[in-house]
Amino acid sequence: MADAKKITETVVKGITLTLTPEEAEIVLTLTGNLQGDRVSSPRKFADKVYYALNAAGVKPTFQAHLSGSLRLTNSPKISSYPAF
């Protein structure tokens, strides 16, 4: 027997995230030390976060704790990233 179900999908258009100053500093430090193409890799989204935090006056105080950088490769399907 055939079965039909109505599927409703919710679309999130934006997210507001409240961070402590230290949390904002680590996010700025991490997003400011990503490698990858600024146009065709997920880095384009990280750059937007970095510049928004920078414009808000956040400083990369955790820079001395870095031992390298993260490399983001080109990703044709950004939506395929796993959820945490």
From TrEMBL:
Superkingdom of origin: Bacteria
Q: What is this protein called?
A: Uncharacterized protein
Q: Which organism is it from?
A: Streptomyces vulcanius
